[in-house]
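Incident log, structure service

09:12 report received: a user says their structure output differs between two submissions of the same chain.
09:20 pulled the input from the user's history:
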Amino acid sequence: MAMPDLNLLVALDVLLAEGSVARAAQRLRLSPSAMSRTLARLREVVGDPLLVRAGRGLVPTPRAIELREKLPQLVQDAQAALRPSQAPDLRQLERTFTVRSSEGFVENFGPALLERVRRQAPGVRLCFVQKPDKGSAPLREGDVDLETGVIGEAMGPEVRAQALFRDRFIGVVRAGHPLTRRKLTPERYAAGQHIGVSRRGRDKGPIDEALSALGLEREIVTIVGGFSTAVALARASDLIASVPERHTGVLREGMHSFVLPFALPEIRVSLLWHPRLQADPAHQWLRGLVLAVCAARAAT
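09:34 re-ran on a clean worker, output below:
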């Protein structure tokens, strides 16, 4: 069975409301002859005369009276479905957003983000989940609404991205650490005992490559899966942790932080989401909040 022309619903709604081909044509900006042809098509599709002559006017059939009660809502619903989404009423919005990010991002930016969410949309809940890898499957499959991090090769090409901020690696040791007593050189840094950070347990990374270019090598005595753990170990020992500066600001309070004595490329941290959520008004609102929170922290 062929799909009927759904544009006929609008024409029939106007015809039944006006009870006149001429007035319906005027409302729809059609010629009377075009409106008459539309009425003929409607009669054929519905299998009913719909409007019949009574004197100089037209009167509806019982089928037309039945349709006249239903059509206005049908037309309104169809128009609403095809209209661009409206901005949500944030005070009434009830929704849970899943955000995949590192522990450092949550610890440093989470409190300010949650405060803004609670103030603007008290019915919205954020669910933060960890990042075991940099693949885009959770975004693609809808398990995650937003993600923060460095864009890697495993990220799908369709994923949308917005730069949040730039970060850099710095060193951090406990207060009073021997490394703080004299001028820091690449040789003194490399001579210490270090904490490696790798989700996959790798013992080499960009820092080791930079040291190797200087003819140096550091001793990694332990490897952990996250920067939070690295900072905690450095706080309680003489080990040296090398961590992203902005991702660990809160964690490093009371410790000695220092600029690494050799050059490393900056890290670009981005906000990531799947294209299917690009036009979702509530999702747009949350993306704006994340950007605003990161921009505010950058200004302090």
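09:41 both user submissions now match this output. Likely a transient worker issue. Closing.
09:42 reviewer note: DSSP finds ten helices and twelve strands in the chain. The first strand starts at residue 51 and ends at 54.
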